[in-house]
Inverse folding.
């Protein structure tokens, strides 16, 4: 199994490839590296077996629009995308809702709906009750959202990112450490409806939480931890929710995770993400022996923006890894 966390602007774009199967999760808001990968898939005579759009924020959906337009125009053929999962307002509510001109992401959701209808792709919604999807020995289990949140959100317009818009890059970690708390948490319904996926293959477990809120994430982790014999939810990798926003993690989540490798997906050009305080929360609350915590960034410049010194890396036992492939992160 190859998991590619592509450079995709300020958002997420993850390509999973296994035994000639291709699964695409989100498209970011910069599709350059995505379309390079798509061309390679097409040249091999393969297709996108499954497209998943976790939610319709601009930095997750714009690249998908770029891809779908090329499919509609005939570059890859109408059967290139075999199945799509997208919890779109039209699919949930059964009606087309009016669009506020200010709601870019909501308009983009309508664009994706129209494009999917044109290519006649098998298009469904998903919740935590959806059965896992299996490709050979690769399994995708859907952990969120819950139906009630989708029903509520489908009646609203607009989607947005949630951040406190405070830049902590210039502050030393020792100073920031004194102010680590869970007083400010993301509670936005748009982010709560984000699809959360557990990817399992070849003995590996990777958690892909999209932009889900800490309240919903805590429910998911509590359930997984309760099912574990060690009382913690074990993963080989966790992609940090909402591009490593401080407001998307809390003490209860981190304490019940068993993992030392965390992925950060953003080019740092939106809302001062990642937050250095998010890394500190993991350092402070993660239960471990003497293991080093590794943070993997799909953009080198995102890592550099944090200005974490060598002395701080040693003190906090953290390893920072910039994009290890030209397209981002390969694991």
């Amino acid at each position: 199994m190859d998991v590619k966390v592509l450079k995709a602007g300020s958002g997420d774009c993850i390509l999973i490839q296994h035994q000639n199967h291709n699964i695409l999760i989100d498209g970011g808001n910069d599709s350059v590296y995505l379309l390079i990968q798509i061309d390679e898939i097409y040249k091999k005579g393969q297709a996108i077996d499954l497209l998943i759009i976790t939610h319709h924020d601009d930095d997750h959906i714009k690249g998908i629009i770029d891809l779908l337009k090329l499919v509609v125009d005939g570059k890859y053929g109408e059967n290139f995308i075999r199945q799509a999962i997208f919890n779109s307002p039209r699919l949930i509510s059964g009606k087309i809702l009016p669009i506020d001109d200010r709601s870019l992401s909501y308009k983009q959701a309508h664009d994706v709906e129209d494009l999917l209808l044109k290519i006649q792709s098998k298009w469904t919604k998903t919740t935590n009750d959806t059965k896992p999807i299996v490709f050979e020995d690769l399994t995708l289990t859907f952990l969120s959202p819950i139906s009630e949140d989708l029903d509520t959100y489908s009646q609203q317009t607009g989607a947005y990112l949630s951040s406190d818009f405070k830049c902590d890059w210039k502050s030393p970690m020792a100073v920031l450490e004194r102010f680590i708390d869970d007083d400010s948490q993301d509670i936005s319904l748009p982010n709560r409806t984000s699809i959360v996926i557990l990817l399992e293959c070849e003995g590996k477990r990777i958690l892909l939480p999209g932009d889900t809120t800490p309240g919903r994430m805590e429910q998911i982790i509590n359930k997984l931890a309760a099912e574990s014999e060690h009382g913690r939810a074990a993963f080989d990798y966790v992609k940090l929710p909402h591009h490593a926003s401080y407001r998307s993690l809390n003490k209860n989540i981190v304490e019940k995770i068993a993992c030392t490798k965390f992925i950060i997906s953003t080019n740092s050009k939106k809302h001062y993400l990642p937050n250095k305080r998010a890394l500190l929360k993991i350092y402070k609350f993660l239960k471990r022996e003497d293991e080093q915590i590794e943070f993997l960034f799909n953009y080198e410049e995102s890592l550099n923006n944090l200005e974490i010194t060598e002395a701080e890396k040693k003190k906090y036992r953290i390893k920072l890894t910039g994009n290890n492939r030209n397209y981002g992160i390969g694991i």
About this structure: The radius of gyration is 19 Å. Residues 158-163 have pLDDT under 50 and may be disordered. The first helix runs from residue 32 to 43. The first strand starts at residue 2 and ends at 6.
